[in-house]
Write a structure and sequence with these properties.
alpha/beta, TIM Barrel, 8 strands
């Protein structure tokens, strides 16, 4: 009997816009995730200035001490700490200086034992901004990004051993949202990228949408044929940044094909901004990542609630989950939020339950939504 294939990389990409998670909660995540099969953590919070806006600058001493402690905490849990650079904004791809700057900064991470590094070009303009780049790369952003990674890897110190490089290209989903926000992408972006990107570099993809309801094996096989590289799935669930900031994604992970490990090298979830609330949906994500062939969303979610809050709390979390789903539907349809009599009763009971635990971190994080519920049900 053939053994099921599993994801080689399983874990979290802290890659959202908004206040980054605290160092204490990241360490808690490592403990929580390691017990559930997590083996990878990508540090890429968009609002860490030294990751994105000020990526050329080294971390200040106190911040670097915190990062170093975080790396050690991951290593102690046998979690591969991956550092993400976000150099794309304003980058002149034909200039060698940024490569030297990035490698100098990366050396500090290498010295701490980091052996996987990511270069992230997501959420930048879809066209080259420098005239010399447009000439050098024939007006192709895909060619520029692939060739830049090739030069970067060729320039890394000869003393570096066993380094794994990842890329998130600017075209990371077929979602038309990307073109509405960042401009129209060149045709055959992934195929052009593949012409210039070193063969060993793993490539991120979010699915058919930036925030997809479903990700099928058929879709990912098609992308794998286009890019011809190991695929990393950046799953934007349960994240709730930017236009989703008012959304509460506390239900189970759903719509992920159990055959994805046959195609996808790594599977990473982008979490909620709310640190404590994230652990509930993330537990179902870990459950899927470790056992996709046996994953059952409803059963996984119920186990997660019972484990964290006790069996008596299940009806209250079900009510909160139903409220979140109803709210999301109303938002999508641009209609006023209304709930029926049955859910109203359940939500009133849930409010009493949350009030009993009002001193807990998760109850405080729920406050924007419990206030909304109070106004809705009285």
């Amino acid at each position: 009997m053939q053994q099921p294939v599993n994801f080689q990389r399983r874990g979290i990409v802290e890659g959202f816009f908004g206040p980054p998670w605290s160092m204490a909660h990241r360490r808690r995540l490592f403990e929580f995730g390691a017990a559930r099969g997590m083996n990878t953590y990508l540090y890429a919070p968009k609002d860490d200035p030294y990751h994105r806006k000020l990526w050329r600058r080294p971390y200040p001493p106190e911040k670097w001490r915190e990062i170093s402690r975080l790396i050690r905490a991951a290593q102690q849990r046998k979690i591969d700490f991956v550092y993400g650079f976000h150099p794309g904004e304003g980058l002149c791809f034909s200039d060698d200086a940024p490569i030297r700057i990035l490698l100098k900064k990366a050396q500090r991470f290498y010295d701490q034992g980091v052996r996987t590094l990511a270069v992230l070009f997501d959420d930048i303009p879809s066209r080259l901004t420098h005239a010399r780049d447009r000439r050098a790369y024939r007006n192709s952003l895909a060619r520029a990004q692939g060739a830049w990674l090739a030069r970067l890897i060729a320039s890394q110190p000869a003393s570096w051993a066993e380094i794994e490089w990842w890329i998130c290209p600017s075209y990371y989903s077929e979602d038309k949202l990307l073109e509405r926000v960042f401009g129209k992408f060149e045709a055959n972006f992934l195929e052009t990228l593949a012409e210039y990107l070193p063969a060993q570099v793993a490539c991120f993809w979010t699915g058919p949408r930036v925030v997809p309801k479903k990700i099928t094996a058929t879709h990912m096989r098609r992308i794998a044929r286009r890019v011809q590289r190991p695929l990393l799935l950046w799953d934007n669930y349960p994240v709730n940044d930017l236009s989703m900031a008012d959304e509460l994604h506390i239900g189970p992970l759903q719509g992920r094909d159990r055959r994805l490990p046959e195609i996808v090298y790594g599977y990473l979830n982008n979490p909620l901004l709310q640190e404590e609330l994230s652990l509930l949906p993330l537990e179902t994500c870990f459950d899927y990542a470790v056992r996709p062939q046996n994953y059952k969303p409803a059963a996984s979610w119920r186990r997660a609630v019972e484990e964290r809050f006790g069996s008596e709390a299940v009806p209250h979390w079900l009510a909160l989950r139903d409220f979140a789903a109803t709210s999301l539907t109303a938002k999508a349809r641009k209609r006023p939020l209304r709930v029926g009599a049955n859910l109203t009763r359940q939500l009133k009971a849930a409010l009493r339950y949350v009030h009993l635990h009002r001193a807990s971190r998760w109850a405080q994080e729920l406050r924007p939504w419990t206030t909304q519920i109070e106004n809705l049900v009285g």
